[in-house]
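Dear colleague,

Following up on Tuesday's group meeting, I ran the structure prediction for the two-component complex that the binding team flagged. I've pasted the input sequences exactly as they went in, so you can double-check that nothing got truncated or mislabelled along the way. The structure tokens for the whole assembly follow below. Feel free to forward this to whoever is handling the docking comparison.

Inputs:
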Amino acid sequence: MAEIVWLGRGGQGAFTAAKLLGAAFTIRDNEKYALAFPSFGPERRGAPVRAFTKLDTKPVVDRSQTEKADYIVILDDTLFGPQLLGLLKDDGKIIVNSKNNIEDVLTFEAEKIAAEFGLPTVNTVMFGLLVGLSGIVAADEAVEAIKGYMPAKIQERNISALLKAVQEVAE
Amino acid sequence: MSKKFLSGNEAFAEGIRLARPQVISAYPITPQTIVVERLSEMVEDGSLSAEYIHVESEHSALSCAIGASAAGARAFTATSSQGLLYMAECLYYAAGGRFPIVMMNADRSTALPWNIYGDQRDSLSQLDSGWIQSYAENAQEALDLALMSYKIAEDKRVQTPYMANLDGFVLTHTYETVDIPTHEQADSFLPPYETDNRIDFDNPKNMAFSAGPDTNYIFKYKEHKGLLAAAEVINETEKEFAEIFGRQYTGLTENYRTDDADYIIVTLGSIAGLCRETADKLRDRGVKAGVVRIRYMRPFPNKEISDVLKNVKAYAVLEKDISFGNEGTVFTNVNSALKKAGIEVKEYNFIGGLGGRNISAGDIENIYTSIARGTGSVNFIGIGGEDNGK
């Protein structure tokens, strides 16, 4: 089972990204299964939010929060702390949206790409970076998930941003 | 059939859309809110033709559904936790009036301390209210139960309201893939509601009346028989459901690796999956572990449970509930089933997940190992065990 933990602040769309990944993973293949859920509780804009995506080739029955992740994707670098390394599997990776270099993690200026497409949030850019780095889903499956689960009027910009992000890490 | 990535609440709303309720009365409460929000959107966009009434309280929500049902309409409402407790008075009116309303309850902790997270103390406190009570494990089952619920509740042999319970957050807010049947399939499964138990100006009759000591108990006896009859109707309905939709359910309980099991966990709701996975792990190590998932608490699966537990060395009832001053209510019910069948097996109760506290795979493994070596009769996961009345 592959487990991805998303960290963001309320309003940044971390849970939307978690959901899009689950949808993308299962969108074409009936033998693939996913769970996606947020850290439960009251929702507040700006407050730290965690979201979880679990992917497998058999039904995912463990609904508890991830204890060891393959990837931790962080939408806001103020949420990064070295203790998060303890939440990783041995070969796990952390991807952070940040202007600065941070030790032991992969950083990208996701905001730059988001701004290029007039997006106020970096969630689909971070999703694209994860897709490009991990190959956990194909880029066109990710696009299909956006088409299926985001409001029509913001699909195009998000798809463009996602594809740009995929390309960014492919280079 | 189309496949979608949905939360438990959204899946349940899809099932209700397919069941074509004519009246929906709603008062939002976390973690139920999304189901009534989705239904309001469906009514707004025309994909569901229903009278949607946003009422001022849960007490009114169920009162409104009772009124609708008494007018001969298929009625739906939903609630959770304090909302369910606030409408408790009306639960008994609905059941005693034999109004086959369907209500979704998002299982959530009860105050105080105030808490919005999931446990099953809300619905289990209402076992005696005369409603059918189902407990879903995942979003697909939630959708399927939404569709089956009306067929079971409205059956002339049953005529009893139906409370479909979904674990708050871990089921209501978790997304997974769900097959959504077509309206054509759903319509061929579930015909429109027809009843004589309604206000009819051409054939006026007294409804929701008083009954004194001479006759009251006969109504109560018939109410009891109606709920008991649901067991057979559930099996019939699931058979018919499988023929149309291709998914076969297993009646009041679902057994996993129980045939030769020495140690069984009896539980309900969405924690059952992790119990099965843990049982597999223990089987790999030579421990004969199994799981019984109770799908219906009312009617209670007395025979199903005593049949499956009669040959085990010990069983544990794992539940997100405590009846203060005694033990978990599911434990009481399960023990009673064995006692009636004359079966003597070591029984243990594990209380966990109260107020949404996580139950881990390690906790479940501990249950199996501690019932194999013996422990207190009532155990609080993470706190410890005690002997209750022994």
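The first strand of chain A starts at residue 2 and ends at 9.

Cheers,
M.
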